[in-house]
Design a protein that fits this description.
This protein has helices spanning about 5-10, 10-20, 25-40, 50-65, 110-115, 160-165, 180-190, 220-230, 245-250, 260-265, 280-295, 315-330, 345-360, 360-375, 380-405, 425-430, 435-440, 470-480, 490-500, 510-520, 560-570, 585-660; strands at about 45-50, 75-80, 120-125, 170-175, 190-195, 215-220, 265-270, 300-305, 405-410, 445-450, 460-465, 530-535, 540-545, 555, 575-580. It is of the alpha/beta class. The model is unreliable at about 500-520, about 520-565 and about 570-585 (pLDDT under 50).
Length: about 675
């Protein structure tokens, strides 16, 4: 085992201590991480990794340390998810729309990392605009799980989780909207933390769903997560959603260990489904039950709890998240920044083609669904109702935490699934069933590794606490992770790399050109860009999917209303799959002609009906007009008669008066 391999086996806290003692330099550590990243390049973790920039930062850290200006993370490599803005660097969100977009400013989190002395170590792959649970929705390539290359690493922060699990970096940053940190952490066997909403500034984070997004750390130890979170924590006046209590309840970089007497005071709320429940792996449930027994042995009080709204979490989340996504992604119009189509015919054509070419299928699906639930006819029925349900979930959390201190449950219903295995979007959404509620409630949660399944894939355990109780979460998670039942060894890929002979530094060639080559080589397992074409003004869509591994497979997506019904449970219809082999091209052509003829007949009938109705309307209007005229004439005659009577009466009176005078 080489010296470089000895370096990467350490945690971030250990690196900090070793760098302070001068056991090795930040440049040595950076070179070691670059070498490891090159060895694991087949996992498709990084969208961009510039060796020169990394080494420059490391050399600068060494100079600062010599001059006594070292920060708390001086010289520690940190991978960054591709939806955080880094000044003068590309921030693509793994999307074709922003593949050439250069950020004009730093995100607040990036500024804090740079001020602390961290070495920014490349852009980690992700699901496009953080929309996904497997990293298969990246526009460039799919990241592979370091535990098994045939499986997904989870998402949307799959690249950040795989970077830590593969030992390429000791720390990484991700974002969590509905479980996008905890779920990939569970699938990759690392620590992943979603802080309290508002604890970490969202300024500079490319928005998916503003009321749900939260930035958090990945690491291989709880101590490392606490250290990183303590640095990026804090109130930020540039972010309107930043909470003032972030400074009032700071994160402690050093975790206080729990003593035997402390365990007896802790109340654990257990919410574990039974083994017979559909969609849950028996091994996942069994691992969670073992964890509960371990906590009971330590003296903790276990209290069973059950959520009334667990079944509503997915529909509520996907109504609110897609609505906010539809609003946030309106800015990508092909005019101000990002992709712009060539030679548009008019302004509408510019909008449609730019967004069609730039966005992937999942992003388009969520924009359409979000626009639908925000429309005037359905706003009250869906969006407003979902907001009410969200308040009920938040109230339920506050009631739970009156009875318990921490809630324990599995992080994901299953372990990692194979790449390309889940084509049904609703089935994919269900993988976030156990993580979504924490985002809707805004409470903090952490994933702790909890053993492996029969295939050797990691199982994750989720701990959830009350608002701003991250320090308490870290105490429990740290105590658990120190036990052999909860600590994870190296992934098979990492173990193979550790056993191999070390590369020399001259052979390290991690730069944009080599990354592009590796991306081209990995295209065999990629999905081609899916084209979206508009049929008419009613936004009827045809999604034509092509895959090099399985050609001639076509799928029709149901319209927005039936798709929403699938999420809410009001409709049990499933997406019908039709293969192109069953129907020949001739039959399709005949059907198309028949449909066109039927459509023409319908339009002709409609036109005829419209003409008839117009004629009837004209006749009615004429009759009304005549009646009005006759009424006016009658009134005039009546007035004339009344005037004549008045005149006659006046004449009679005058005649009588004259007669009296004569007498």
């Amino acid at each position: 085992m080489s010296n470089n391999d000895n370096l990467i086996n350490r945690t971030a806290v250990e690196h900090v201590k070793s760098l302070e003692k001068g056991e090795y330099s930040a440049k040595d550590l950076a070179m070691s991480c670059l070498e490891r990243a090159q060895k694991s390049s087949h996992l498709n973790i990084f969208l961009e990794l510039d060796e020169k920039k990394v080494l420059k930062q490391a050399e600068n850290s060494d100079r600062k340390r010599k001059s006594g200006e070292a920060g708390p993370l001086e010289g520690i490599p940190v991978a960054v998810k591709d939806n955080l803005c880094v000044k003068n660097e590309i921030t693509s969100c793994a999307s074709r729309f922003l593949e050439n977009f250069t950020a004009p400013y730093n995100a607040s989190v990036i500024e804090k990392l740079q001020n602390s002395g961290a070495v920014l170590f490349g852009r980690a792959n992700m699901d496009e605009f953080a929309m996904g649970s497997s990293t298969e929705n990246s526009a460039f390539f799919t990241t592979k799980n370091p535990w098994n290359e045939d499986y997904v690493p989870g998402g949307s922060s799959g690249g950040s989780a795989a970077a830590v699990a593969s030992l390429a970096v000791p720390l990484s940053i991700g974002s969590d909207t509905g479980g996008s940190i905890r779920q990939p952490a569970a699938l990759c066997g690392v620590i992943g933390v979603k802080p309290t909403y508002g604890r970490i500034s969202r300024y500079g984070l490319v928005a998916f769903a503003s009321s749900l997004d939260q930035i958090g750390p990945f690491s291989r130890s709880v101590d490392d997560s606490a250290l990183l979170l303590s640095i990026i924590n804090g109130k930020d006046y540039k972010d309107s959603t930043s909470h003032f209590n972030a400074d009032k309840y700071p994160i402690h970089p050093e975790i206080k260990s729990l003593e035997d007497a402390d365990w007896k005071k802790i109340r654990i709320g257990v919410n574990i489904p039974s083994e017979g429940d559909a969609g849950y792996d028996a091994e996942v449930i069994h691992s969670a039950v073992k964890a509960v027994k371990w906590l009971e042995e330590r003296g903790a009080t276990v209290i069973p709890i059950q959520s009334k709204y667990l079944d509503y979490a997915i529909p509520v989340y996907y109504i609110l998240a897609t609505a906010e996504a539809s609003s946030n992604l309106m800015r990508y119009d092909g005019i101000r920044y990002g992709r712009r189509t060539e030679n548009p015919e008019n302004l509408m054509d510019l909008y449609v083609k730019s967004r069609t070419e730039g966005f992937g299928t999942e992003v388009k699906r969520r924009i359409l669904l979000g626009t639908y639930v925000l429309s005037s006819g359905y706003y009250d029925a869906y969006y407003k109702s979902a907001q009410k349900a969200r308040k009920l979930i938040q109230k339920e959390y506050s009631e739970f935490f009156k009875k318990v201190d921490v809630i324990l449950q599995p992080t994901s219903p299953t372990t990692a699934f194979k790449i390309g295995e889940r084509n049904d979007p609703v089935a994919m959404y269900k993988s976030d069933l156990l993580t979504i509620s924490a985002n809707l409630g805004g409470v903090p949660a952490i994933n702790v590794p909890c053993g492996k399944d029969k295939n050797g894939l990691p199982i994750g355990l989720q701990l959830t606490a009350n608002y701003f109780e991250e320090n308490f979460l870290f105490q429990i998670a740290s105590s658990m992770s120190k036990n052999s039942e909860f600590s994870m060894d190296y992934s098979p890929v990492s173990a193979k790399i550790l056993s191999n002979k070390s590369f020399t530094h001259d052979k390290i060639a991690i730069n944009e050109k080599n990354l592009k080559k590796s991306q081209d080589n990995s295209k065999r397992n990629k999905k081609t860009i899916e084209k979206l074409t508009y049929k008419n003004l009613d936004n009827e869509l045809i999604l034509n999917k092509t895959n090099k591994e399985s050609e001639n497979k076509e799928a029709k997506m149901e319209n927005n209303e039936s798709f929403l019904g699938m999420l809410t449970g009001s409709s049990k219809k499933t997406v019908k799959k039709k293969s192109s082999k069953k129907k020949s091209a001739k039959k399709k052509a005949v059907k198309k002609k028949a449909k066109k003829k039927a459509a023409k007949k319908k339009t002709a009938k409609k036109k005829a009906k419209k003409k008839v109705t117009k004629k009837k309307a004209k006749k009615k209007a004429k009759k009304k007009a005549k009646k009005k005229v006759t009424k006016k004439k009658v009134k005039k005659k009546a007035k004339k008669k009344a005037k004549k009577k008045v005149k006659k009466k006046a004449k009679k009176k005058t005649a009588k008066k004259k007669a009296k005078k004569r007498r």
